Amino acid sequence: MTASPTSSPETPESPESPGSPGSAESPGSAGTAGSPESPAVPHPLHSPVIAWFDEHARDLPWRRPEAGPWGVMVSEFMLQQTPVSRVLPVYEQWLARWPRPADLAAEAPGEAVRAWGRLGYPRRALRLHGAAVAITERHGGDVPRDHAQLLSLPGIGEYTAAAVASFAYGQRHAVLDTNVRRVFARTATGVEYPPNATTAAERRLARALLPGDEDTAARWAAASMELGALVCTAKNPDCARCPVAGLCAWRLAGKPAHEGPPRRAQTYAGTDRQVRGRLLAVLREAVGPVPQAVLDTVWEEPVQRARALDGLVSDGLVEPLEGGRYRLPRT
User: How far apart, in whole angstroms, are the C-alpha atoms of residue 258 and residue 256?
Assistant: First the structure.
């Protein structure tokens, strides 16, 4: 049975380079650690968290056996910085249209951007398309099992490689997303929130907590992630429902307030991200190239609008044509 987190930790609009789950470690991203060389001894957190997961895990489509490795990989890309409720309809449509990597690879990358809809951070669509092309060309259309081969795919960093290996293939990897980092920070280190960027100490802790056998380790990865998503949440942790409240170092210390740097809150209204989204919305709906004059109507401020459009072109999300026209990328 596959299992996957609520959201992944890749840094928005930046490629994974190692650390959402997975990926390069940049501020606000969550990374992953490889499995330790020798099996860890059972930890008191393992049994109650996994038992809680067995009873309370959500029935999500990418957790079902029929999702397969490709379904797990698609979910990991979509869940980065995006809540499950927004991902579900797009995920279902995506898998219905492109049930295998080769199906997506056969399409123009602009079609991936179009189908991405309003999930946000649309460069993820281009990266997923690039990964599908590489899987088709290098691996006969099958998502590779090997962690190193997963990591070599374009657009995939440490987190996603570990997550796919764990959730799709039941392998033993420490999968550190934002939810897991928060659970570990509270239960094991006694602080309310983890650092803004994943640290070496967090990776060491994740390796120390990793169960020794593959099946239990894969279950632990999914269970600790779900606990952070549903119970040990960022703003309103429900300690009364927590299966390890009696073991939680933060709770036992009296829930001391966060003393680190202020936690960054993402904004959207009025940002270049909003302008980019409006420009892409016009291009997604268009059946052909769109004149500059049409794009000029989506945002009044010309300097910001031009900057946003230039950024979309630079990111490969929009293709400029002669005569001041634009379209989604064909190649």
Answer: 7
